[in-house]
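Supplementary Data S3. Sequence and structure tokens for construct A.
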Amino acid sequence: MILWMSMLCGTCVSAQAYIGQIEYKKTQAPAATVRLPYSAGLVEDGLKEYMTTKGYKKSSADGLIVFRGVLLDALDTGGSDLYFSTAVTSRKEKDVTLLNLLAIKRNQDLLVRTQGDSDRESKARLFLDSLAIFMDVYNTRLQVNSRQESLNKAQKKMNALINDSTDLDKKLRNLQSDLAQNKSDQVKAAAELQANISADDDTKKKSQKKLNRLIDDQGTLEKKIRRAQGDMDENKTSRKEQQDEIDKDQQGLEAVKARQNK
């Protein structure tokens, strides 16, 4: 059987837990307490994972988190019921949580003190010291997952910008090709107008109308080219900014992974 205290073996960790208090039905009772540098929600989620992976189900009683029949060590053959509560230390320290633990004999009334309670208090403090180590690992894992997700999103956005850049480049080249064709058509239309200088009025009007339309089309194409070029410049700026964001996310991820691997 794996003991709760085994997480401390081979690791130089000074005890973090101390004797504090837990409130139950408006009554204060002595309890093991540890100060954790995480939000209450994260602590409760980490506690649930810590216990459920060891086969214990979470329940509740009057606002307390409860796990029943927990074996605190090899001598705890009958099992203990563990009652937890969380509290924020202050409004200014919302990411600092006090985790309180009252361990009692299995199925014992929470408010009844027995001769073995003092021994369970010591074991509860060791339990919280072990949990504090787990919480650091748990929090680091969450940070790795969060930073990896952020990096994936940043890379996905970069891929979209690259695709947009390809489309814009193609659009610009097509517009430039259309403009070149337009200018070529204008030369032909002007030559045609000149050739029809002695033709009847209808023929000359048709030739002039054709040339005017091409001139108008040239103005429209030039506007589209300027707009496409502006979009490309904006895309280039966005890609540079996005690459900076990717580099930042990558560095952050590597830093958290380095801490994870220590």
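Construct B, processed identically:
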Amino acid sequence: MPRCALVRRRRARIAKSSWPRRLVPTLLIVEAVAVRVRTLSPAGFLRLAATSCFSLFVVVTSGAFVRLSGSGLGCDNWPRCGDKPYPERGYHAFVEFSNRMVALIGLALTLVTWLASRRMDGLPRHARLTALAAFLVAAAQIPLGAITIALNLNPLAVMAHFLLGLTVLGLAVIVLLEAWILFDGRAAAVGPRWFRNFVVWAGLPTCAALLATGAVATASGPHPGASAGVKRLGLAITDTVYVHVRVAAAFGIGVLIVGWFLWRLRDAYPGLLRIWATLLVALVSQAIVGEVQYRNALPWGLVLVHVFLAATIWALTLAIAYALWRPPAALARK
């Protein structure tokens, strides 16, 4: 049955049902999404995976904005915002509650992506499990957010919240690449096996260490997430930045090594070299922003840009590491 006819048939059935009238619009939306999931093409699944990935990137950035703008306790309870389920007044309450709504959109998209992956013929089993993991980890962000508020923005809880968000983003990147392969086919693995293992087992842990040390440095800085009464990590910002900079230098050297190998393979995988070039630009920009923000007492706007670039570096690094083993065919075309 054509999709439009199926939608009309289900709408008529819901309209004639005994459901309360106020629930009918919601049920119609759910049914429309369900029908689209059941009839999704590989191109549609690719668009869905890309939208889900983008939304999770926005979640990470908006969460950082909440903390850096001092709005972490704008709603001092959860899931309500004060006495109401929505913010009545106040800039900080609006910012914190808006982040909850952004996170819910990201969660909904991970759920729809997982449901769609179950109906995509040709999608490997590990891609479906990755989509499920993305949804489950995104859902885990909800109770962790409540715990973070209950602990009065304890820096360890805030760091866990941030790093878990990056984990969801990484899982979404893998699903996106598999959706791209499903749509356009897969090329042969890139380079020798030892090179691919080097990127996965050395590059990814170093990038994760870069993010973790950056989170520790931020937790030691002047942005606790609320105006007053929030404890800090107890480490000197100079010490945490010292470690973070040296991890960044090690990661940068690794990026240059990978780039040298990809340059030698540029005729076979020009698209992969372009992704690496984007990573290099993000890494250089990150270093410049980091130096400027440190010399100017860490203004929150520059710290937000730093977090945005950190999420970009993580997503691109994971994309390169995964694409070395399973590159979409488009990356091998000029």
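The chain has two domains: 42-184, 187-334. The two ends are 40 Å apart (CA to CA).
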